[in-house]
Every structure is written in structure tokens, then in C-alpha cells.
Amino acid sequence: MANTAKFRIFRFDPEKDRDYRFQDYEVPLEPGMTVLNALFYIQDNLDQSLCFRVSCRAGICGSCAMHIGGKYRLACETQASIAKDSRVTIRPLAHLPIIRDLVVDMAPFWAHYKKIQPYLQPGTPDPERERSQTPAERSRLDILIDCILCASCHASCPMTASDEAYLGPAALVKANRFAVDSRDNALEQRLKIVGDEHGVFRCHTVFNCSLACPKEIDPAGSIGNLKRLATKHFLCKPEVR
Ligand code: FES
After folding, report:
1. DSSP letters of 216-234?
2. Residues 139 and 223 in one domain
3. Which helix (H) or strand (E) holds 212?
4. Which residues line ligand 1 (CB under 6 A)?
5. Number of domains in the chain
6. Is the pLDDT of residue 238 over 90?
7. Is 214 found in the same domain as 112?
8. What is the residue range of 232's domain?
């Protein structure tokens, strides 16, 4: 086929396969076609057994994160034309159990996320109206609230591979998001969580997470800030923020 995208896709069906394998597919390219569109084309026309995860198709839900052509990307935001000139390999997210093909079990990822208490804890009764912030206070949250929990950072991190209990970059970005929120008053208890042996000090600052993030959030920067706050907290509390 002349104008095609060529993919080599990771396959594993635990009910049939003893080991993983790769399968090649060739998809006719359409203008504007994404890798996600190509996966749907394969499923509809070439191989109904191919499994992948998808929801919003608009770069919002994080469901379609996978390793595409040597990089973690969102399939719905990646043009299929990257596979026009040479075959592109697609693999599932690393460091999470594989359920089937490109679908991984996100349970360990959510378990770490839950540990950092990912919700506002003002520690005071609800006000009559909203809890207000100045524009400067609100702007400290700007990029941090863009995380779509796609787990690309988790999959790219060498520490999540070697320490299953390591909280991981996504959970730590969320912890930092509340650490810098002027309305939150649970900093001390969160620092105890992120400052333990499986927390921020396990990070070796290799920056893979910041390179992998499709929303350019810089998890390594968040981890750096939490390291600073935790160090200050453990050395000279209570002036930590
Ligand atoms: S399907 Fe939601 S981010 Fe791609």
C-alpha cells in the first residue's frame, strides 16, 4: 500500500499466550488520522482481538497513554503519519501489570494516588460561600491542575520499576498541588507521607517524568519542591510552607 502507516504492536492475551509477542499492521493513512484512529481501524478491519483503552478521544481523560515510537504519548493526540516512513512500535505503559495487549492494570497507580490524600483539607468549617484566593495564590496551581493522570510519568520512571511502593511522580504532583494551595491545611500530614522511605527521597531526579508528561507539567519540579518542604519540615518545623 502506498500511503500507509506501519505499526508493530505489543500483543498478549493471558488466556491464550504463554509470552508476549509483536504483530505488524499496515493502515491506510487519512489526513489528520491519529494513532488512536489507526488502532480503531485495525480493530474494525484487520484484527478484532486487539485491545486498547480509550475514553474521551480529546487528550483529556488520559486513558490512551502508551509507548509509541520510543516515547510515552497520548494515542489520541499523536498523528499516525509518524509511522509513514518507518514502522513504529507501540507498547503498553511500563511498570504496571498487563491485562491484555495495550491495556494495563491501573490499580497500583491509583493505590499510590490515594495514599497522598488527593483532596482539599482546609481544617476549618465550610464558609458560607467559597474559600477565596488571590489571583497570585490561584496562579500557583495553574499547571499542576492540568494533570490528567495518564500514568506516562509513572511508566517512564526508573524508581517505579525498582520500588513498587514508591509513590511515583503522578501522586507526588498531586501532593505538591495541595502543598502549594493556600486553602489547604494538611501540609504537615502530607509531608509525613511523601517524606517516608517510599516518597520523594526515592527520586533520583532523572527527569524522565518531565520528558514523558503530555501536558508538560514537570513532575520532577514538583518532587523537588516537596523535597525542599519535607527537608525543611523535618529539620525545623513548623515553618514549612
Ligand atoms: S482518549 Fe482520553 S486522553 Fe486519549
Report:
1. ---HHHHHHHHHHHHHHHH
2. yes
3. helix 208-212
4. 54-57, 59-64, 74, 76
5. 2
6. no
7. yes
8. 107-236
The CATH number given to whatever domain includes residue 232 is: 1.10.1060.10
Residues 95-120 have a mean pLDDT of 97
Task: Average the pLDDT over 223-230 and give the result.
Answer: 96
C-alpha of residue 65 to centroid of ligand 1, in Å: 7
166 close to 202: Cβ distance less than 8 angstroms: yes
Q: Is residue 22 in a domain?
A: yes
For residue 130, the CA-to-ligand 1 centroid distance in Å is 31
Ligand 1 atom nearest to CA at 53: 1
Indicate the pTM of the whole model.
0.93
Instruction: Compute the distance from residue 58 Cα to the ligand 1 centre, in Å.
Output: 5
Same domain, 35 and 142: no
Residue where a domain stops, chosen among 59, 78, 104: 104
Look at the chain and count its residues.
241
Is residue 241 in some structural domain?
no
- pLDDT tens across 34-60, in order? 999 999 999 999 999 999 999 999 999
Which has the closest alpha carbon to 82: 4, 168, 176, 172?
A: 4
Does the residue 165 lie in any domain?
yes
Could you identify the atom of ligand 1 that is nearest to the CA of residue 77? 4
Question: How far away, in angstroms, is 64 Cα from ligand 1 center?
Answer: 5
Of the candidates 231, 148, 220, the residue with the CA atom closest to the CA atom of residue 195: 231
117 is written with which cell numbers? 490524600
Nearest CA residue ID for atom 1, ligand 1: 57
125 and 224 both lie in a single domain: yes
Per-residue pLDDT of 204-213, as tens digits, reads: 999 999 999 9
Are residues 143 and 88 part of one domain?
A: no
